[in-house]
Amino acid sequence: MLKVPRKNSRKTRQYQFNIDQCITCRGLGNMRAIPKIKFLVRYYKLDILFLCETIVQVNKIEEFRYLLGYDSCFAPTRNSRGGGVALFWRNTVNCSIVNYSANHISAKIEEVDSGAWIFTGFYGYPKVEEGIRGILLVVCLGRLIYHGV
């Protein structure tokens, strides 16, 4: 749980997230989300950032890359009004996209001090009845990574 001070107030707002997984931003179209994400990026010194539920078109992601202070970004095209995933990274890591869909991004990350590893950011399907598709996608991605992409 992270407590972030509200602007011009003594009260704090609490945000719960797992920094190792991703940040659900609930729409980058809401410009109030940017300062909060920017705070988290600076606080945790994130070289790589995966956002899900961006709810913006791909061309807007490049603007957010600049606003958040990242060197590169990637976002696949969304299929519907909701959802959306994006991956941002700095030049301190070598990032190459392995595969992607509207619901996931897999990338090979090469760091100077810790070697290479595979990152997969996943955001589930919006409809409950499509949940099995999400499970199958994660299983297939795991097999691809296990057998060497």
SSE blueprint:
Blueprint lengths: L1 E4 L6 E4 L7 E2 L8 H12 L3 E5 L5 H11 L3 E3 L10 E5 L4 E8 L2 E8 L3 E8 L8 H16 L3
Parallel strand pairs: 3-4
Antiparallel strand pairs: 1-2, 4-6, 5-6, 7-8, 8-9
Properties at a glance:
alpha+beta, Deoxyribonuclease I, Chain A, three-stranded antiparallel β-sheet, 149 residues, flat, 3 helices, four-stranded mixed β-sheet
Q: Order of SSEs, N→C? A: EEEHEHEEEEEH
Largest sheet: 4 strands, mixed
Number of domains: 1
At the fold tier of CATH, the topology name is Deoxyribonuclease I, Chain A
At a glance:
The chain is 26% helix and 32% strand. The chain has 149 residues and is an alpha+beta fold. It has a single domain (2-146), classed as Endonuclease/exonuclease/phosphatase (Deoxyribonuclease I, Chain A), CATH 3.60.10.10.
Plain-language structure description:
With 149 residues, this protein is an alpha+beta fold. The protein has a single domain (2-146), classed as 4-Layer Sandwich (Deoxyribonuclease I, Chain A). It is 26% helix and 32% strand. It contains three helices and nine strands; from the N terminus they run βββαβαβββββα. The strands form three sheets. Strands 3-4-6-5 form a four-stranded mixed β-sheet, covered by helices on one side. Strands 7-8-9 form a three-stranded antiparallel β-sheet, with helices on one face. The protein has a two-stranded antiparallel ribbon with strand order 1-2. Strand 7 (94-101) and strand 8 (104-111) form a beta hairpin.
